Amino acid sequence: MKPKKNQLKPIDFSVRYPNLSTVLMIEDYLKKNNDIPIKITQLRENLPKKIMFKTLKIALDYLYISGKIIYGPKGFQWTYQESKEIKSFLKDAYEFKYDAKKRN
């Protein structure tokens, strides 16, 4: 059933969207292994936590659209470089740690 023009599309519950920790896990792995392109199957096998293939593809699409990775026939490769200003700002920044278990 197609939605009418001003009607919201129905939610597709079969698709699993990645949460922030999953995207950060993928980013960290690709940053550490940025010297050679990595195939999607190799990436999926070497990640610390196992994730579904569709979820991985959605996360990789996000990283590609945001300009952090490139994709070619040999696989994915990390390309994003932080600027010197951001690195110096983050070095002096205060890291806030929140523990939900210790909430009062």
How do the strands line up in the largest sheet? 1-2
| Alpha-beta classification | mainly alpha
Strand content: 5-15%
CATH class: Mainly Alpha
**What fold name goes in the CATH topology slot?**
Arc Repressor Mutant, subunit A
User: What is the makeup of the main sheet?
Assistant: 2 strands, antiparallel
Q: How far is the first residue's CA from the last residue's CA?
A: 48 Å
Relative helix content: 40-55%
Count every beta strand, where a strand is a DSSP E run of 2 or more residues. Answer: 2
Low-confidence stretches: none
- Domain count: 1
Mean pLDDT over the full residue set: 83
Number of helices: 4
Which radius of gyration do the C-alpha atoms yield?
Answer: 18 Å
Q: Going by CATH, what is the homologous superfamily?
A: Winged helix-like DNA-binding domain superfamily/Winged helix DNA-binding domain
What characteristic shape results from the CA principal axes? Answer: globular
CATH architecture: Orthogonal Bundle
